[in-house]
Amino acid sequence: MTESLIALVILLSLVFARVPIAFAMALVGGLGFAWMRGIEPAGAMVGSAVFETGFSYSLSVVPLFIFMGNILANSGIAHGLFAGADRLFGRMRGGLALATVLSCGGFSAVSGSSLATAATMSRVAMPPMRKFGYSDSLAAGSIAAGGTLGILIPPSVIMIIYGLLTESDIGKLFIAGLIPGAIGVIFYLLAVVIAVRVNPKLAPPVTEPASMTRRDTLGVLGTLGLFAFIMIGIYGGFFTPIEAAGMGAIFSLVLALAMRSLGREGFSAACVETVISSAMIFAIIIGAEIFSSFANFAGLPDALVDMIYDFDISPWAVIGMMVMIYLVMGCVFESLSMILLTVPVFYPIVAQLDFGPGPLADPENVLIWFAVVVVVVTEISLITPPVGMNVFVLRATLPDIPLRTIFRGIIPFWIADILRLTLLVLVPTLSLWLI
Amino acid sequence: MIAARLETFLKGLAALLLLALMAVTGVDVIGRYLLNTPLSGAFEMTELLLGALVFVALPLVSRAGAHVEVDLLVELLPRPVTRVLGLFAALVSAAVLAFFAWQLVRLGLGQLADGSRSVSLGVPFAPFAFLGAAACMLAALFGLIRGLRND
Prior knowledge:
The complex is a heterodimer of chains A (about 425) and B (about 150). Chain A is mainly alpha-helical and about 425 residues long. Chain A is about 75% helix and about 0% strand. Chain A has helices at about 1-15, 20-35, 40-55, 60-75, 75-90, 95-110, 115-130, 135-150, 155-165, 170-175, 180-200, 215-235, 240-260, 265-295, 300-310, 315-330, 335-350, 365-380, 390-395, 405-425, 430. Chain A is globular and about 70 Å long. Chain B is an all-alpha fold and about 150 residues long.
């Protein structure tokens, strides 16, 4: 326990000194392991972690789902989604921001990543919002927040990684994200409505009605088709959730070719972006693997379980504490490393909690509900200052908007998120109903 | 110059591996339903392609400076300090990657001696370990060049 805490402090110092999170975790985990077991076994542990992580069948979903999202991001379907959603809300005050949230939700359904969703939608939704004089804070806030839906609405790379860590059924995890994802969209829409009601200056009325080209319509239909293809494929038993990634990538490539919107350049950009993001994610997975080997060896999970038994803490209090830990960690850590560091420690504890009869009587269900809770907390961390990754993505695509403006725009969405989190924690049925 | 060429080569190779990875799933699933002949060894092919893909793309991440890091303090600290921190981070990263490479070489030599191969396709593992070692060294190098050049 003491070793783990010292290690965490060193890890944090390295991370703040700008050492990439992947290498900081590897270094601290490797040194800690060497200190406890000797250099030779530590070297062997590190070697096999580096070698074997890449050779994991289930992790093949990481590059393939990212590829699917990147192909679609470069193919203009996001524009179609935005135009379609805008037709729905065009007459309302704040209609463009509402359309942004809804099309973010739509794009999330074919993208497994929040960062990709935010990056794609910022290119599509920001120009019209600026053109019609929307305030930068509302515009950027709705994109950053809407983008977080990417990891909750299936398919989701984070859900898959949670499933691998906890040996949960990935198909069930995907389904569990549907209702909470829909609630997320609805709450965000309400956040926009309330924000423009309070301060109408945020969103001047739009005079020019949106029009949809044939390609836009095709984009909307294609997105719905791809989502249906993945869901029917998985739940109809035609392919596994792992294979769904490859099939989805093929479908999106065919779709992009059919729409004639993905040129050679777009295609090679999608390939290069995909392999770089994938290797970046694998580096983090390797680092976390090494750190977890050490933390497990140092007995961190067992020590925590003992503590819960000794102090006779109620299961709800345990979940509450974990949520608090995530919210605090989320201020500093990037989403994937946060999940990789905590889930291996937390899930054995969560699986042993006794919630009594009800929807949480089955430990398997508890882990699925916990997955939804973890993903929603992670979504919050993506827009929490100072290190909200989605905000950084936005700043990369829109360098002229100051960080402070973006964070100010996020406040209504952040409140909506906290309400949603509370609701999902207190009403597990919302996550477990469709399973 | 050499670095740029190497980068282009790695990008092309990684893209090919990615497309192959996608094709394996496609051929397997479509073959299973339409032609009743699933691709034998698809599982292992996926694993081997993915492993190679990760290694080939790793140097690209370091070259692009795309590793996830927390640059929270950068805006608060004076420039000379961030410069030193950047160099420190690059050195730590390079040391970790070099250690990875060393362990992969050891692993590869062991696999060579044992003659260990994948179960169903019989592909020897050692070349992958050596590929990984080379990739980690290259990533360390790219990271160092970036750290020295940047600020």
